[in-house]
Amino acid sequence: MASSSPGRVAETLREEILNGTLAPGERIVQEDVALRFGASRQPVRDALRLLEGDGLVTLKTNSGAWVSKLSESECVEAYLVRERLEPLLLSQSIPNLTTEQLTKLTALVKEIEKASDIETFLRLDREFHLLSYAGVQEGMLSEFVERIWNTTQHYRRAFAKINNFANSEVTHMEHKLILDGILRGDSPQAEQALEAHIRRTRVTLSEHKELFR
Amino acid sequence: MASSSPGRVAETLREEILNGTLAPGERIVQEDVALRFGASRQPVRDALRLLEGDGLVTLKTNSGAWVSKLSESECVEAYLVRERLEPLLLSQSIPNLTTEQLTKLTALVKEIEKASDIETFLRLDREFHLLSYAGVQEGMLSEFVERIWNTTQHYRRAFAKINNFANSEVTHMEHKLILDGILRGDSPQAEQALEAHIRRTRVTLSEHKELFR
DNA sequence: ATAGGCCAAAATGTATCCAATTAGAGCATT
DNA sequence: AATGCTCTAATTGGATACATTTTGGCCTAT
User: Fold this and answer.
1) By three-state DSSP, how is residue A34 classified?
2) CB–CB of B133/B142 below 8 Å?
3) DSSP-based three-state secondary structure for A20
4) Nearest nucleotide, C1' to the C-alpha of A31?
5) Per-residue pLDDT tens for B34-76?
6) Contact B151 A140 (CB under 8 A)
7) Which residue of A151, A194, A204, B92 has the fewest CB atoms within a 10 Å radius of its CB?
8) B160-180: per-residue pLDDT in tens?
9) Are strands B27-28 and B64-67 parallel, antiparallel or unpaired?
10) How far apart are CA B121 and CA B108, in angstroms?
11) What is the nearest CA distance from B68 to chain A, expressed in angstroms?
12) CA–CA separation, A196 vs A181, rounded Å?
């Protein structure tokens, strides 16, 4: 996949934005990227447009490209949208999850509890939630959700650092409730637990406005 | 706005896709567009990437660009997402609507009733709903909603043609309920009426699978 | 000392050219 | 008649070169 030049460039840059190598607000110079990949600036421009479509990069005509930055209200909005969309997505995914995926989800919840550093926690948490949506084939809904996860990734990391696993007990319980609903095919429970999970994060997040200054 | 070349090209093409000049599945040849706008192919490629980000155009590497097409299930998915997102958007918009906007909304509901041809109906209906969201400043939520409206525009037109204003009485009543909620600042009523409005359309739509063949 | 304007360097946007890939017509085969 | 194949023309992708715009440092004037 992504055999095309712009595709590969975009994928690499996306990875670097998600893992924090490229921070929000940081400028991306076309020629620098072109040199890194041994390509001309044209494929790089295409890649930047792709990432703009994903909301990860903000382009300004005749000026340049920056890693997208969210204000506090934009971040809260992202969580409000998650509260509406992810339960819907989960409800459509649950009937189609395979036994292997259910096993993996169960294992992930345990692993998340054992996670001792922030990067591991973030990676596993992301994997758990996105895997729980694997029963739905790619479409607009999953695309929206993935986009929200991507654009808020940096703030999830910053938030985890500040909290230093403070609310981890509550988080683990919520994950178990979601998992229980999934395993028993009790979609409403899973949906409600998920909505509560996201909502609590949103409320807690808005108590840390310092993340956005 | 959109003073840049790719911006202008994209805007024109978007317009033509929305008003039906360019039909879903139709191919878009870079050089043809470039000639039309008296520009080179480069800005056109940028424009196509922009439209791809909007979901209006589908690009295939080394092959070309086509106006995006929705399957029936994708269209239903779009309406499911609308049911979740638009009531949220409306609830955030209502407190910030100006007196002028409320007057305009009232007028639009009346105009929609008087609409005698399909294009007028589509235009006014779109204007009514999008104006009801004008109290919210641009952001992820409004962007998602606008994208859904754009990608489903063609199917709304086809649906209206088939129905030939059959359910228009119900539609008008729903619009009045939404408007009443907005005017009285009764957000829950407006939200519920809007959700019912979208839901009914979705259900009715799935009774016309011939639209997707 | 600070604000404002000017100029040079750097970065982005566009055009043109060439290479690589694909699509479709026409032919051959079953 | 239908299917598969080949080859050519058309189209897209990428690189280089040039034009345009912006940015930021520096100078001047208040």
Assistant:
1) helix
2) yes
3) coil
4) C11
5) 999 999 999 999 999 999 999 999 999 999 999 999 999 999 9
6) yes
7) A204
8) 888 776 668 999 999 999 999
9) antiparallel
10) 10
11) 12
12) 13
